[in-house]
């Protein structure tokens, strides 16, 4: 959750070097130190005002339990529905995180906190990178809570420690990609209320996937769109790595889910990371 930062807090926490570093290595260390300061600022805010964080966690758990217990008996899925569902909900939560990132970034912008950051002698990328770091740590906590809940209701991965950790890596890679989408949109949006328009886009993208049902159960054209959804690639890859039941298809994408689960997020990051940094640097005073 993001709240305005007082001048006292900002002055005490932000580094104030006398001059810009002369070497590339020094610039990198300076940028990382600045980014960590911004990340720590957001973590302190969440610790002091945990209401929104707890609400987001409860919502994610509610989605998992609702689909598993209320709709699971009616869903068409190969094998145990819980094992089919859990990878989908975990990936979906990573995508839905774009809304909280968008709101936090745009709220800081609207309240003048971003302008205060820009007036300080700090790396130009530190604010957006720091925001990404804080939200990524938030996502790690969300994944931990959802995995604990899933284990409690009977889900489990059937692979070794290596594939299991690789699956979590793919989930966080997807979240990292959506972070940069959210940061960029938050910097260009007019007000925090614009999140309603973002939800109109994000929710259909989230549900038009293989997260809850197999694309084979959809009309042909709709199933094809669902298969090529970046979310579907991550879900299919996680199911494969955890040896959970998944949908079958002869498409090239379905046969190489791990490859696409890496390519889609990397492509999004390659597009939206530089856009976010450039947009931040071009903000008007």
From TrEMBL:
Biased segments, Polar residues type = 1-12
Q: Where in the cell is it found?
A: Cell membrane; Membrane
- As given in the record, the signal peptide range reads none
**Cellular component GO terms, alphabetical:** ATP-binding cassette (ABC) transporter complex
TM spans (from-to)? 50-72, 84-105, 126-153, 165-188, 200-222, 252-275
Entry annotated with the keyword Iron: no
GO molecular function annotations of the record: ABC-type transporter activity
Note the InterPro entries from the entry: ABC2_TM (IPR013525), ABC2_TM_bact-type (IPR047817), ABC_2_transport (IPR000412), Nod_factor_ABC_transporter (IPR051784)
What family, per the record?
A: Belongs to the ABC-2 integral membrane protein family.
Official protein name in the record = Transport permease protein
- The species this protein was found in: Saccharomonospora piscinae
């Amino acid at each position: 959750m993001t709240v305005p930062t007082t001048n006292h807090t900002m002055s005490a926490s932000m580094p104030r070097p006398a001059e810009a570093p002369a070497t590339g290595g020094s610039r990198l260390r300076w940028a990382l130190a600045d980014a960590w300061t911004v990340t720590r600022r957001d973590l302190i805010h969440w610790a002091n005002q945990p209401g929104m964080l707890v609400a987001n966690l409860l919502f994610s758990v509610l989605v998992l339990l609702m689909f598993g217990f209320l709709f699971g008996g009616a869903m068409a899925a190969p094998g145990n529905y819980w094992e089919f569902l859990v990878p989908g909900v975990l990936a979906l939560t990573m995508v839905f995180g774009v809304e909280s990132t968008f709101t936090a970034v745009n709220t800081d912008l609207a309240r003048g906190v971003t302008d205060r950051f820009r007036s300080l002698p700090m790396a130009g990328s530190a604010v957006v990178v720091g925001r990404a770091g804080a939200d990524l740590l938030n996502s790690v906590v969300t994944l931990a809570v959802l995995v604990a809940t899933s284990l409690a209701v009977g889900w489990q991965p059937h692979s070794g420690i290596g594939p299991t950790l690789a699956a979590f890596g793919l989930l966080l890679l997807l979240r990292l990609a959506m972070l940069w989408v959210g940061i960029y949109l938050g910097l260009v949006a007019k007000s925090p209320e614009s999140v309603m328009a973002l939800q109109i886009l994000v929710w259909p993208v989230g549900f038009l996937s293989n997260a809850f049902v197999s694309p084979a159960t959809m009309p042909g054209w709709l199933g094809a769109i669902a298969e090529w959804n970046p979310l579907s690639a991550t879900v299919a890859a996680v199911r494969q790595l955890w040896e959970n039941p998944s949908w079958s298809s002869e498409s090239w994408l379905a046969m190489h889910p791990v490859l696409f689960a890496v390519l889609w997020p990397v492509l999004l990051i390659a597009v939206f990371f530089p856009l976010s940094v450039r947009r931040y640097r071009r903000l008007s005073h």
